[in-house]
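General statements about sequence and structure are easier to judge against a single worked case. In the encoding step, the backbone of a single protein was reduced to a row of integers, each denoting a local shape. The record that follows shows the chain in one-letter code together with its fold in token form.
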Amino acid sequence: MAMRDIRVVGDPVLRTPCEEITTIDDRVRSLVTDLLETVDTEGRAGVAANQIGVSLRAFSWNIDDDIGYVLNPRLVEVSTDEYQDDEEGCLSVPGLWFPTRRGWYAKVVGTDLDGREVVVEGEGLMARALQHECDHLDGKLYLDRLERAERKKAMRAIREQL
């Protein structure tokens, strides 16, 4: 159990939809510990399992000193009448920030390690993190949500970093 390295853009695990967790075993418990330790660093809002190389549906968050996790999260509600267009970044796309439209409010339903239902919801940064991490688990990066001109800039910047 430890803080794990973050996979970066270009790694195929980031573009592969994650598998549902069907059994809570030592491997899943270890994954949750690693997710919690990996997210518990200044400037990290969330970490999805595939960002640490594990293709299972789980993520952790670290918003306003609230650290937690959820297994098999489903994004069940996103506000469609209020948006936020702040700059968004990603540990898997280091050093790049672009304006990304997200719902102002989001709600995720999943389970904990005991199989009990977990509901995580919030506004602002928490909503952004919930949407961002669920995208990761579906094999998407925030770059996929950028307006065309911004996406073009982002892709150029990524190529220049390589």
Summary: The chain has one domain: 12-161. The CA atoms of residues 87 and 99 lie 4 Å apart. Strands lie at 46-48, 58-63, 66-78, 83-84, 87-90, 93-99, 102-103, 105-111, 117-123.
